[in-house]
Amino acid sequence: MHYNTAVRTYASKRIEEIESADIIMGIPCFNNEQTIAHVIRMVTHGLAKHYKEKRCVILIADGGSTDDTREVAKDFEIKPWQEKVVTIYRGPGGKGTALRSVFEAAVRLKVRACAVVDSDLHSITPDWVQYLLDPVLTKDYQFVAPVYLRHKNDGTITNNIVYNLTRALYGRRIRQPIGGDFAISRDVAEFYTEQDVWETDVARYGIDIWMTTNAITQDFRICQSNLGVKIHDAKDPGEHLGPMFRQVLWTIFSLMERHESYWKGIRDSQPVEVFGYEGYVEPEPVIVNLEGMIDHFKTGFQQFSALWKDIFSEACIGAIENAADMDASQFNLPTDAWVRILYELAATFHSWSVNRYKLVDLMTPLYYARVASFVRQSWEMSSQEAEELVEEQALKFENQKDYLIQIWDEKFAQAAQA
């Protein structure tokens, strides 16, 4: 089935009736009946507080929830001068399709700014609305990425993979490249809707990193906005993040192929301006099961170590074998080894044309090993102190970029000859 629009007929008619707006706030959701009312309340208050003179639309893009998410959203009373549209989007299930419907509405309503917030947020405040929208409306930015005050054990995929790779590859220090809360201008919304990704896996899972990468490579004007503490339905990295890890990694590696000529020419990285919240609050702790993650890794080592030997260099295999012999009290997969493991994996992905999902699956135990190392390394640290570890790690990714380019080309050439 080919979908030329993610907007259903009912929503399309509502958009036609509204005609035009200054601002659209999108809330993608799926089975969020516990949190959706709170998020809508904060959005409607924020729009009323900061943009009362503007024409504002709140679009709830639902993925076919089986609980009462849509009913709760429909029943919630917003300010009488605002518009609300609650709709099930059309197309493949996943956040990407929900966003596509928001972007289409933004283009059709000719808005000046479009912001999106997650539907499971506990910590959203009315000021988030201003923090996200203001750089687009008043400073002419086209893409606003979020910065959160997060607990050191939250955002493990971002801290150990996505921030490092985005920064080293594309040269911009965007701290949360897969943050669910962001704002864009109408021309960016239009650019996104015109791309050919909406019926691929990117639309289902990898949409956040796809948007950020395209914002950089298209040279859109990018900034960040600090939203303060992010508290959402947090997930223990040992229990819930395996599938997300695989989806994000798959998307990053696919984007590396598409934008190869861009990132090969980038050296070093530039800071990205930050607006928004200026205070600091220590975030609520996220409890992780350290022993569980190490067990995941050791089980994976028993299953996959023979295959890992075909993929990784001797230095990486040595570091992996050392980690497999350690117990929780001294467990460590060193940062330098982790940088090379990820770079060698990217190069292998590039050189393999088949079984790529299998390749990413093989990586999951190594991700658990790296997160366990980071948790242990930062055990005594505050989240602010742990942030320095994240920065040190990111710098190591930048410093070893030549190694990435070398093995990227070598592995591909070997595969071509085979």
TrEMBL record:
<dbReference type="InterPro" id="IPR050256">
    <property type="entry name" value="Glycosyltransferase_2"/>
</dbReference>
<keyword id="KW-0808">Transferase</keyword>
<keyword id="KW-0328">Glycosyltransferase</keyword>
<comment type="similarity">
    <text>Belongs to the glycosyltransferase 2 family.</text>
</comment>
<dbReference type="GO" id="GO:0016757">
    <property type="term" value="F:glycosyltransferase activity"/>
</dbReference>
<dbReference type="Pfam" id="PF00535">
    <property type="entry name" value="Glycos_transf_2"/>
</dbReference>
<feature type="domain" description="Glycosyltransferase 2-like">
    <location>
        <begin position="27"/>
        <end position="159"/>
    </location>
</feature>
<protein>
    <submittedName>
        <fullName>Glycosyltransferase</fullName>
    </submittedName>
</protein>
<dbReference type="InterPro" id="IPR001173">
    <property type="entry name" value="Glyco_trans_2-like"/>
</dbReference>
<dbReference type="InterPro" id="IPR029044">
    <property type="entry name" value="Nucleotide-diphossugar_trans"/>
</dbReference>
<keyword id="KW-0460">Magnesium</keyword>
